[in-house]
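Today's session is about reading a structure prediction critically. Students often jump straight to the picture, but the first step is always the sequence itself: look for stretches that repeat, for charged clusters, for runs of hydrophobic residues. Only then move on to the predicted structure, which in these notes is written as discrete structure tokens rather than atom positions. Here is the chain we will use throughout the hour.
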Amino acid sequence: MSYKVAILTISDKCSRGEREDETGKIIKETINSHAWDIIKYEIVPDDTDKIIQRLLEYCDTLKADIVFTNGGTGFSPRDNTPEATKAVIEKEIPGIPEAMRFVGFKHTKRAMLSRGIAGIRGKSLIINLPGSTRGTKESLEAILEELPHGLEMLYGREHK
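Below is the predicted structure for this chain, in token form.
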């Protein structure tokens, strides 16, 4: 089954064109390899209101099945992605970020410093990925295989 995916890179430097969005490229390549449809890809600065606005648009207007954010999950004063995500989700899914941190921790203990969360808004699943390329690769590898099952449950379809 093909899913509609929106990707939101959250980075002051990328939004200003000072750095290339390598992490967003990894997400796009991974999604394309699964034959899922990327319906939106954007870069925004680390601004809570802008993040909230995009998440609401992707979930409520575009009806994305999955919204992947990347960046803004650390300890910096400008890292606000989890807070913006919490402001829009209706249900939190702690197991997804737990799995991502568990897999990442096997490679670097710094994985425990990620504050990313995951949750549901309507029929959309929002997942905060780390801003590092390695962290994003490892996180996607940890969760992608099980996401279709979660989406089937979310849609109320029969699942095994």
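Discussion point for the tutorial: The chain has a mean pLDDT of 96.
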